[in-house]
Amino acid sequence: MGIDLDQHHVRSSHRKAPKSDNVYLRLLVKLYRFLARRTDAAFNKTVLRRLFMSRINRPPMSISRIASVAANKKSSELNEGKTVVVIGTVTDDNRLYTVPKLSIAALRFTRTARARIEAVGGECLTLDQLALRAPTGSNTILLRGPKNAREAVKHFGFGPHSGKKPYVRSKGRKFEKARGRRRSRGFKV
Question: Do residues 17 and 29 touch, judged by C-beta distance below 8 A?
Fold first, then answer.
């Protein structure tokens, strides 16, 4: 037996518990850890893994996006009676004129999102209520929000042709319009 040089002092990079000290999140982790162990459902393992994630990896999801997936023309009768599950925040979207009747389970809801869902006879469930109703995740649709919709992601990338957004004070004639941006000033990329 020799020394495992690769695994010596090497910590595995995936989380086994959430970083947060939020007691409610910790209780949910305790619940879904039990369900993931005692049921064969992959749903519970997925929910548990997403509960461990950082806030950047738990992006918010708007009512309009949920409605477009769960209550559109094609899938409305297919998803009838199913609960939409979001491991993150459900937010309101005032561009959506009419909210369909939906049953949504999420970590949290914004005040206006909750009010609009409940006003049309829908329901907002917590994840522990969902565990009582569907311990194996049956009749649920597990969704997640757009991870790359953050403003910061627009600035990522390297090189002149990556299309990354510059960190600039404002957009106008005097800002980032000289060398490298016009043929008359040396070159243009």
Answer: yes
Three-class DSSP category at 163: coil
Residue type present at position 48: L
Q: Residue type at 171? A: K
Q: What is the DSSP string of 53-101?
A: S-STTS--EEHHHHHHHHSSTTTTTTTTTPEEEEEEEEE--TT-SS---
Q: By the 8 A CB rule, do 189 and 160 touch?
A: yes
Where do runs of H (alpha helix) occur along the chain?
23-38, 42-51, 63-70, 111-119, 127-133
Work out whether the CA dihedral 165, 170, 173, 178 comes out positive or negative: negative
Distance CA 7, CA 5 (A): 6
Is the per-residue pLDDT at 17 higher than 90?
yes
pLDDT digits (tens, 9 = 90+) for 147-168: 999 999 999 999 888 889 989 9
Q: What whole-number distance in Å separates Cα of residue 62 and Cα of residue 84?
A: 12
Checking if the pLDDT of 31 tops 90, the result is yes
